[in-house]
Amino acid sequence: MADVSANEPGTSQPTEKEVMAQQFVDEPTFNEHGEPHRPSGWMYKSFRLGFLYIPWYASPRFQLAMVSFVCFMCPGMFNALSGLGGGGKQDKTLANEMNIALYSTFAVVGFFAGTIVNRIGIRLSLSIGGIGYCIYSISLLVSVHHNVRGFNIFAGALLGVCAGILWSAQGAIMLSYPNEQKKGAYFAWFWGIFNVGACVGSLIALGTNIDVKEAVDVSDGTYIAFIVLMAFGAVLALMLCNGTRVIRSDGSRVVMKKNPSWQSELIGLWETIKFDPYVVLLFPMFWSSNWFYTYQQNAVNGAYFNTRTKPLNGFLYWFAQIIGAMVLGPLLDLKYFRRSVRAKASLVGLFIVTMAVWGGGYAWQKHYTRADVNPKNGWKGWDWTTPGFVGPMFLYFFYGLYDSLWQGCVYWYMGALSNSGRRSANVVGFYKGIQSAGAAVMWSLDRDETPYMNELISNWALLCGSLVIAAPLIFLRIKDTVDIQEDLQNTGETIEEVLPEGHPEKRASVS
């Protein structure tokens, strides 16, 4: 093996990825276990504990598991808290204002978050994101005992900044780390673990409010539990490795920008659109993807049920997300059909499910208005012991199932357009930015007491319309595979640096 540590005077030092690529020179392609050779070092050693196989630390699977647990602790707990309606407070005004600030800054920062992630790295991006969630929950706890509206609004705006960075980093991992054939499975693993966090958070809220049959604020203990878990998630993020060190099971590496600068990554935003302008046809799907949370959490769960029943519904909602992801992921990866065929089928299936679920929601929403469920008018909120509870409970369950199907398809469509870590971070940044702009508008409409039926119709129309707009991209632009040369454009990397000797794509490129 060549000595990569020695350099002639006046020559530049090799990059980390060039050093790692050099370690494969003159070595056999596969070891005695049939695995491609990996560089030496503890982070590239896999092992077994009985029947349990533990992949190497710098593997896509291990890194995805870690980022899943970070999201379990941070946005997972945030989802559980938000799912209570009003951030756990009976008066939803403050939470609406915090969420307007949150999603307004999220929309701006999210659009440019890919630049930040590509510049500072995955690990630091995720940790910064976790800190924002912790401060948000602290501000809600303080607001129970003191009027700190300024702090609350600041915490919401800060979380928007932090969450934009966190989700762009998460998306880059989920879309660019796995091989093309496993992107649906990776979504299922991530979304399942992430939503276990929301389930646990809902159970915490249920346990601390089990005897509260009125519609009141949740207890201090609920907030404290969320704060501790979110802080742990922010620390856990620091234990990940950055994408330049990750090696897949076939020996290939993640395509990243070599020596990124702030200027190169800002230019990269434009290059992402220029690479495939059709991606703008997904923007309405991005806008719609958080629009329905406000209606579901405030108009259904927050408005109609009492304090102890809300977290039960929340648990079922997030549990349904796990089921939906576990069903959808393998279907999107089915090897019996070409990826282009699976993409078309998923769009048609998603349209049918949209009509069914929101048609059921329309039938339920005809039963009440804002005035009917206003506590000032004597409304006490349904309990799980109330006759007829099973109907809306199942509706809320299917709302959660639908959310996982929508988000899963959007992520899979984005992942089908590119395998580049740099480009994926930028596209996910667009996704989260536009998504958050839509959420900010919807939270402001709810703050202004838009009729619940109007909110539902807006959801139904936006979701169906955005599927129609996305159809040309799904039917015409999603290919069965993305050529490695397309992913390498404008990154400064070469095939030799990202593919090992003997890799099928490398041989095809040479020929």
UniProtKB/TrEMBL annotation:
Tell whether Transmembrane is among the UniProt keywords. yes
> Do the record's keywords include Flavoprotein?
no
**Gene Ontology, cellular component aspect:** membrane
Give the Gene Ontology MF terms in alphabetical order: transmembrane transporter activity
Q: How does it sit in the membrane?
A: Multi-pass membrane protein
The protein's location, in the record's own words, is: Membrane
Source organism's superkingdom? Answer: Eukaryota
Q: Name one Pfam family in it.
A: MFS_1
Print the keywords alphabetically.
Membrane, Transmembrane, Transmembrane helix
SUPFAM superfamilies linked to this entry: MFS general substrate transporter
List where the protein spans the membrane: 62-80, 100-117, 124-145, 151-175, 187-210, 222-241, 315-334, 346-364, 393-413, 425-445, 457-476
- PANTHER family according to UniProt: ET TRANSLATION PRODUCT-RELATED, UNC93-LIKE PROTEIN C922.05C
Q: This chain belongs to which protein, by name?
A: DUF895 domain membrane protein
